[in-house]
Amino acid sequence: MKDVTRMFEVAPCLHEIVECARSRFCCGVDDEISLKGRVDCGRGRAAYALVDLKTDVEWDQFKRLVEQARVPYLDVLVTSQKNFR
User: Which listed residue, 7, 11, 27, 79, has the most CB atoms within 10 A of its CB?
Assistant: First the structure.
């Protein structure tokens, strides 16, 4: 697993995140890509959960959840699978 940090001036749209991930990890057009956002759902102690980021609505909900966290940090886990044809 690679840890990659990417900085943006403003919170990007979901399409920008997908394109950035595809470019960074050399994914082809037919390759499957999955994004999950890491959310702190703990009260006093940090407890993290992963949420799917498949649609713009889920992305917007994720950003709102992160804004309410103690440390507002957009952390996205990207997985990809090559499709060989």
Answer: 27
DSSP for the chain?
A: --------SSPPPHHHHHHHHHHHTT--TTSEEEEEEEEE--SSS--EEEEE--SHHHHHHHHHHHHTSSS----EEEEEE----
For the chain, the domains span: 14-81
Helices within the chain (DSSP H only): 14-24, 56-67
Q: What is the pLDDT of residues 12-33, one digit of tens each?
A: 899 998 888 888 888 887 888 8
Structure tokens given for 1: 């697993």
